[in-house]
Every structure is written in structure tokens, then in C-alpha cells.
Amino acid sequence: MTDSTADTGASRVLGGRPTEATIRTTTTITTVKNTSGAHIELKNVNKVYGEQTVPAVENFSMDVEPGELIMFVGPSGCGKTTTMKMINRIIEPTSGSITVDGRDVLSLNPNELRRHIGYVIQQIGLFPHMTIAENISVVPKLLGWSKEKTRNRVDELLSVVQLDPKTFAGRYPKQLSGGQQQRVGVARALAADPPVMLMDEPFGATDPITREKLQVEFLRLQESIGKTIIFVTHDFDEAVRLGDRIAVLSDRSKIEQFDTPANILRAPANDYVASFIGHGAALKRLALIPLYDALLGRATDARGTASLSETDSLRDALDLLVLTGLPAIGVTDASGKVVASVTVDQISAELGDDAGAGAPGVLS
Amino acid sequence: MTGFDLPGLLAFWGKRYDDILQLVGQHLLVVAVALLLATAIGVGVGLLVWNSPVGRSLAVTSAAVILTIPSLALLAAMIPLFGLGWVPTLIGLTLYSLLPIIRNTVVGLREVSPAIMEAATGMGLSRGAVLLRIQLPMAWPVIVTGVRVAAQLTIGIAAIGAYVGGPGLGQMIFQGLSSLGSKNALNYALTGTLGVIVLALIVDGLFTLITKTTTSKGLRA
């Protein structure tokens, strides 16, 4: 059953052919990304520290498309941070080439370069003697923006990171909570609207609840700004949740696998990657698939009163199925109307189907 | 020499108050000018040497050596070069002020966390801009504390300046000491000494105010 109407199955669900074994819910979310990002290319990049014979980064090559959110995952000391920091030349590569939108970063003035690359570090590094507004204004001032333009940008950015400009612009960093400070850190990095952002475990120092909140906000933010982002983390779950593609790195920044979260979870390239994924790969994959992307059962099959929203993930669905013990649970659309149902079998089928670069599967 | 006589001392103050105030004014002025000079030199040296281990220890050790020279000896040694009066006093006080100011400047600049330095560099600030716009303002409270220590030190030492004909309350102390046995000897010495103590307390209070008004709100505890 691969007919093209599967994706626009509203009529079938709502009034259509109840004999259909499988259906899709109504919403087709189009992920057209606004991209203001740049293309980044690293070619045979090496870093050898001082007199050491073993390089910290060896022959690293990677192509990053504009607007992509790339996660570097690996254990401490594998060179992931070193690799990232060579892009804004906080660390100078020993050899190799790095280009941003075709321009060789090694030939640019490093300070000039850095003003156009947003940089967020785990310790945030807000300047304690400056107000929040002054912190965010540093780069715009360096770039010679007018006072008016700078002030408007500060207000805009604070709103973007969910901080009320009236309340927070005049405050000092120490008057903010850790989560608020990290938001300001992101706003400061975005100040001059750089095409590239480098983020070094930006949420690593926050508590789990704040971290999850920041991650969700960050994803939503990235959807609207579409920067090219290199994001370093040692938390594989964070990488799965946020990344468009994940680079799993081992010693000397060797790329063990570079692919979408779904593909890495489904087919880890080797034991090293598998060990990094840890247990529960299937569950992690389910968390990546929203119900609106899955083939579901008819609304009339739903049992019980519990229901899920079509924007919930298959993992949420499985959780509720296990909890309630029901054979099938209703799925509601945005208006709250039950438009489909989901069973454990259908969930399993999605996992089996998911081959082929994450294209929506089909149940026959 | 008669013993302590409070009515006598009060009468002495009543008669000589304009002299006393003039000496207090001179004392304050010579200390203030010396501190300004020492702050300019000390912070400048600190900015130059903070990141160089050799330069750092050279600067701090030199300033420490100066401080070990007895003030009387240092002042006397300057007579052949600068004569008597304000100049040798001013130079001596400036030299004595350098150690706390240089040391606190170096400590303050080095105390800025690597994360803040990296964030600043990562945003495209040049080394000079990081130093002047980030490190210096953050180190400022520590530097002011150094100047405050220097102030306490030099208010006392300034009194010795009278030995080389310098200005200030030292003149009263020396006059008292050189006229022991006369009616007002004790009054002179006491007034000079008390004046120095009161001045030191007032200036210290002043520094609380200076620290508060010149330090960013974001850095205050």
C-alpha cells in the first residue's frame, strides 16, 4: 500500500474507507528550514601539540551543509573539542584546511573571523562586570553597529531566548540563574547573526530538568534561525535529540560514524559506536519518530479513554501501551479528535521499516 | 618637660588650628599625589608583566626590595639627588606605594577565569581589548585594595618626610621632638601623631567609598 494518498489520508481517517488496514494521521509537517548558515569544510586537518608525537586530531575531514546541526560525540580527551576549536582558531591547526563558505579561515584575521562565528562554552563566560545588555552588545559594538541597532538587537535576542528584555537587560550575570545565564550565552553568541555557531557542551553544567528545557528551546530556535552549528557533547542522548547528523568520534578525533541519529541507532558502524549508543537503541529510535510520521491503525480500533497527540513520539505511544495494557490506543489531531490508533505491532513495524535514510515506512 | 595636660593641649589646638589644618592639607596632598603617580606606574607595570613569569617576579621583587629600605635612609639618600622639600618626599612615597599596587594588579588580572578569557577571545576581542575591557575592570576592586594599603602605608611614612623638609604633619612631630623640655613640645608631638592617625582613618573610610563608586555593580558582593 504505497499509494500517494497515504500522506493526505485525512479523508480516509475522517470519513473515508474504514476497511483500510493502515492509515496516516492528517498533519504533514513540512520542515522547510530557514537557513542563514554557511557551508563548512574541513580537509585533512591535523593538530599536534608541542613536542608530542601522537596527534590530538589526525586527518580530520568533514563537510557540513548550510543550516546543519552537527553533533560531535565522543569520550573526554578524544579531540572533539580541539577539532571544533580549530574552526574559530582558538586552537590553530598544525596542517590541513578549513573553509567557511569557501573562505579559508586560516588566511583571515582571527579576531575578524571570530566576530562572525558564534561561540558558546560550557562555563558560559559571561562578563560579570557588564549588564546582560552590555554582554550581548560586545560583538555588535566591535562591528561598529549604531546604538539604536544594537539596542534593538539586544531586545530581540532576549525575547528569542525567552527572557523579558525589560526585566533582564539591565541585570548583571550574577543575578541570573544558571539556565538564564546559559540563555544569555546563546543570545550573546547570536548577537551579530553569525552564519556559524560553535557550541562546546553548552548545557553540560545545568541540572537535568533545566537541560531538557534548554534543549527543547534550542531546537525550536534552530528551526527558525537555521545556523550551521557544530555542537560538542559527550552525552549521546543529547546528540540524538538535537542533531541533524552525529559524528561519533574516538581517539585522535577519528570519525567512527557520521550519519543521522536514526541511521546510527539502526545500524551502528562498529562495536565502538554500538557501545556508545548503549542499551535501548530501539527505544531511542522510537523517540525520534513522531506519530504523524508512522503508519497507524483506524480510529475505531482505539480502546480505552487514554489517548496520544499525533505530535507525540512512538516511544510515548509504547510507554502508554505498556502502562495501560490496552491493545490499541487512540491518536488525536490538533483539535483533539481521535483520528487513528496505534498498537505495539505497528510500532515494531516502524522500526523494521525505517531502512532507507529515514523515509517513512509502509506497512503492507 | 611637663606631663600630659589636656586643657593645655586643647588651648594649643585653639591657638594653632590654622597651622594644624594647613599641615593636614599638605599631608593629604603629598600622599594623594604620590598615590596617583604610584597607581599610574603600578597598574601600568602590572599590565605589562602580568602574563610573564619572569617580568612578574622581577617587578614584584624590586618593589618589595624598595619597601625594605628604611624610610629615613631612603629619604636621606635622595637629598643629594633632589635636595630638600616636596620632591624627595613625593618620590619616596611613590616608591613605597608600588609593591601593594603592582602585586594586586598582577593578582587581579590573573584571577580572571580562563573561561571568561576564552569567551572574550572567542568573540573576537583582541588581546589588548581583553586586557583593558575585560580583565582590568574585573581586577579593579583588587587594585583599589592595593592602593588602599599603599595609602595607609604612605600616610605614616609621609610623617618621616619632614626629615628632608617635606610637607605635612611630620613637621609638628619633629618640632616637638627637637624642642623636648619646652612648654609645647608634647603638644606638638601629640598633635602630629594624632593627626596622622585620624587622617589614616578618614582616608580608609574614603577608600570604602571609592571602591564602591568605581566598581561595577556586577562585581560587588
Automatic annotation (TrEMBL), chain A:
Domain ABC transporter residues, every copy = 40-277
Q: What class of enzyme is it?
A: translocase
- Mind telling me which SMART domains this protein's record contains? AAA
| Annotated EC | 7.6.2.9
Q: Which UniProt keywords apply?
A: ATP-binding, Nucleotide-binding, Transport
Pfam families, sorted: ABC_tran (PF00005)
Mark the transmembrane ranges.
none
Q: List the molecular function annotations (GO) for this entry.
A: ABC-type quaternary ammonium compound transporting activity; ATP binding; ATP hydrolysis activity
**Matching InterPro entries:** AAA+_ATPase, ABC_transporter-like_ATP-bd, ABC_transporter-like_CS, P-loop_NTPase
| Family assignment from sequence similarity | Belongs to the ABC transporter superfamily.
Q: What is this protein called?
A: ABC-type quaternary amine transporter
Automatic annotation (TrEMBL), chain B:
Q: Where in the cell is it found?
A: Cell membrane; Membrane
Keywords, ordered alphabetically: Membrane, Transmembrane, Transmembrane helix, Transport
Which lineage ranks, top first, belong to the organism behind this chain? Bacteria, Bacillati, Actinomycetota, Actinomycetes, Micrococcales
Please classify the protein's predominant subcellular localization into one broad category.
Answer: membrane
Record's signal peptide: none
Q: Which PANTHER family match?
A: GLYCINE BETAINE/L-PROLINE TRANSPORT SYSTEM PERMEASE PROTEIN PROW (PTHR30177), OSMOPROTECTANT IMPORT PERMEASE PROTEIN OSMW (PTHR30177:SF4)
Q: Where is the ABC transmembrane type-1 domain?
A: 24-207
Question: Could you tell me which PROSITE patterns the record lists for this protein?
Answer: ABC_TM1
- This chain belongs to the protein called ABC transporter permease
Q: Does the keyword S-adenosyl-L-methionine apply?
A: no
BP GO terms, sorted: glycine betaine transport; transmembrane transport
User: What residue ranges are annotated as transmembrane?
Assistant: 28-50, 57-79, 85-102, 142-165, 185-210
Q: Name one GO cellular component term.
A: plasma membrane
The UniProt family comment states: Belongs to the binding-protein-dependent transport system permease family.
Classification via Pfam families: BPD_transp_1 (PF00528)
Q: How does it sit in the membrane?
A: Multi-pass membrane protein
- InterPro entries from the UniProt entry: ABC_transp_perm/SBD, MetI-like, MetI-like_sf
